[in-house]
Amino acid sequence: MLLNYRHTASHSRFVLTGLLLLGCASVLLAVCVGSVSLSPEELVHAVRGLWHTDATSLASTLVELRLQRALIAFVTGATLALAGVLMQALLRNPLADPYVLGVSGGAAVGALAAMLFFSAAWMIDLSAVGGALLVAGLLFWLAYNDFKGSGSAQGSSPTLLLTGVIVASGCMALVSLILSITPESRLRSMFFWLIGDLSATEARLYPWIILLAVLWYTSRLARAMNVAALYAGSAATLGISVGYLRKVLFFCAAILTASAVSSAGSIGFVGLIMPHACRFAWGPDHRLLIPASCLAGGSFLVLADTLARTLIAPQQLPVGVITALIGVPIFLLQLHQHRRHYVD
């Protein structure tokens, strides 16, 4: 058993190191590639210029802007992927999505309402986070009796899922109402935000703080998540506080989703396909799945945003379009693999 654990730990370090190098490579590619490409020599000179606070050259300006956008894409992708892992553990469904409970719909309603009535960026962020947390609180209140009274790991998942679907439908109706009364001069920016766009994002510290804090805390719960997944009917008898675990997973996923949506809009499929792809590649152990999904999700969104910037450059596409075009066939393939595994 000890030898097996050491082999597993060594394997985990190897996988995470590879994903970390992939993340660094994706950020480096995003910095170099664009409507104006940078050669390795130009990149080195630009970095030296930034280091000496000489950001007047075109290359230095490009590096600064692209690096900032790449880091925003990475933290957003990692946040969505981590939210997907937690949502799939909460609902005990490997094909669950972090937006499935309508939290992103609440964020969209808040952000679009702020765009309609206000213009300050901080009001849009605050309204998006407030809308997401309001929906999360409403969902928790509606499902509280099931959370409280359920004694198994399955418990309130069906009720919570159905409640989230209904709340999400209501939020989408409010989004349609807001878009229908919006002046045409603001409609384009609101539509791009709703799809998911990183072109107008600014560097912020709080998404990193939220991501690292939730990553650290949920990593401590990885063993409990494994037990709840493997022994759903008897997790409570094995010393797992099932109700507490559900509440933590629910609120952490809600906070992560609110952070990602307020930063970059509603970017779909990252939280759906990346956790399931990591689970398919390296197994369901959450001790590896949680950090691996974060790194893979961050790298995926950086590469998708780079493609969105360069595909029809100098015009830029919303990154949500790229993730959807990539995510749909991958999701169908994963669904086919999931069904075949279930039948076998």
Q: Regarding CATH, which class of the domain at 96-217 and 238-265?
A: Mainly Alpha
Helix percentage range: over 70%
Q: Kindly state the mean pLDDT as a whole number?
A: 81
The CATH topology annotation of the domain at 96-217 and 238-265 reads as: ABC transporter involved in vitamin B12 uptake, BtuC
Distance between the termini: 29 Å
Strand residues, percent:
under 5%
Give the name of the CATH architecture of the domain at 96-217 and 238-265: Orthogonal Bundle
Question: Topology of this structure?
Answer:
Layout: H1 2-32, H2 40-51, H3 58-91, H4 103-117, H5 121-142, H6 144-149, H7 157-180, H8 184-195, H9 206-220, H10 222-230, H11 242-264, H12 270-282, H13 286-310, H14 319-343
Helix pairs in contact: 1-3, 1-13, 2-3, 3-9, 3-11, 3-12, 3-13, 4-5, 4-7, 4-11, 5-7, 5-11, 9-11, 9-13, 12-13, 12-14, 13-14
Brief overview:
This protein has helices at 2-32, 40-51, 58-91, 103-117, 121-142, 144-149, 157-180, 184-195, 206-220, 222-230, 242-264, 270-282, 286-310, 319-343. With 344 residues, the protein is mainly alpha-helical.
Structure report:
The structure is a single chain. With 344 residues, the chain is mainly α. Among the domains are: 96-217 and 238-265, ABC transporter involved in vitamin B12 uptake, BtuC (Orthogonal Bundle), CATH 1.10.3470; 267-344, no CATH class. Helix content is 77%, strand content 0%.
